[in-house]
Write a structure and sequence with these properties.
single chain, alpha/beta, Rossmann fold, Alpha-Beta Plaits, four-stranded parallel β-sheet, three-stranded mixed β-sheet, about 40% helix, about 10% strand
Length: about 280
């Protein structure tokens, strides 16, 4: 975990040394703060022997892909976009609680194929220390694929990673987490391109209101459960905003539109899972 007595320069040097030990590296790169820090460290440690690869599927928001391109360019690391085929996997489409495992299995398979073809020794991702104590089926896929976790291995948590991103002047240092669009679907709701587009466009409507940190969760009967920070909930009581949002969401295909009074929280859909999972 983050050690406040350790200077940011020492933490940066430790992470760079960790990446240098890989000799060559493919970084699973979403453009978020965690993978951006790994990409930056890999570029500093390995230069042209590091490449950032973004898997591009229907669940990746177009806005996030644009950010990934921009961040990779600012880092200077070579950036490759490769299509992924998780939608061809019926186990992924069925959206069980371990959906993320099937998605990451596809991603890491694509990355492994690239690494083998072009002679890269290691695959690394942006797993941080806290991820190891959360419900993240994708970690199992990473383990099976032999993916390295330099941030977690250096005991870096979210606070430390953001400080490193700011230290390296990465534009995403304070960017809110933005997991894939499929994470907005209640478990058991099939993953379809149409539903992913509905969710992406619905969240764009919220962004246009100045609400950057939000989720639109899709439940049975095309019910939208909107999560926003608690101090943003009052905006939806204004008749003009309420009426506009209802019209927009219904146009997108939602049948019911609700506001979650508990506010925004990551991973809220996991609340329905048995504790053993």
């Amino acid at each position: 975990m983050y050690k406040p007595t350790m200077t940011i320069d020492v933490q940066a040097d430790q992470l760079i040394a960790q990446l240098r030990s890989y000799e060559s590296c493919v970084v699973a790169f979403s453009g978020g703060v965690d993978s951006a820090v790994v990409a930056k460290a890999a570029h500093l440690a390995l230069g042209d022997c590091a490449v950032a690869i973004t898997g591009v599927g229907p669940a990746v928001p177009k806005s996030e892909l644009l950010v990934a391109r921009r961040v990779a360019e600012s880092i200077g690391i070579r950036h490759v976009e490769i299509p992924t085929a998780e939608m061809e996997n019926s186990e992924y489409v069925a959206n069980p609680p371990d959906r993320c495992f099937h998605c990451k299995q596809e991603l890491y398979g694509v990355l492994r194929g690239y690494a083998d073809e072009y002679g890269f020794a290691t695959i690394a991702n942006g797993t941080i220390a806290e991820d190891l104590t959360d419900y993240r089926p994708g970690l199992a896929a990473a383990g099976k694929a032999g993916v390295r976790t330099p941030l977690a291995d250096c005991e870096l948590d979210k606070e430390a990673v953001r400080l490193l991103a700011r230290h390296w002047d990465l534009e995403v240092w304070d960017k809110p987490p933005s997991p894939c669009l499929a994470s907005r679907l209640a478990y058991g709701q099939q993953v379809t391109p149409q539903r992913l587009r509905m969710i992406e466009q619905a969240e764009q409507r919220l962004h246009s209101l100045g609400i950057c940190e939000c989720r639109v969760r899709l439940h049975d009967d095309n019910l939208a459960r909107i999560e926003v920070p608690l101090d943003s909930i009052s905006a939806f009581t204004e008749p003009a905003i309420r009426d506009w949002l209802q019209e927009e969401f219904e146009h997108l295909g939602f049948r019911y539109i609700t506001i979650d009074l508990a506010g925004f929280r990551s991973g809220s859909l996991n609340a329905v899972l048995p504790v053993v999972q």
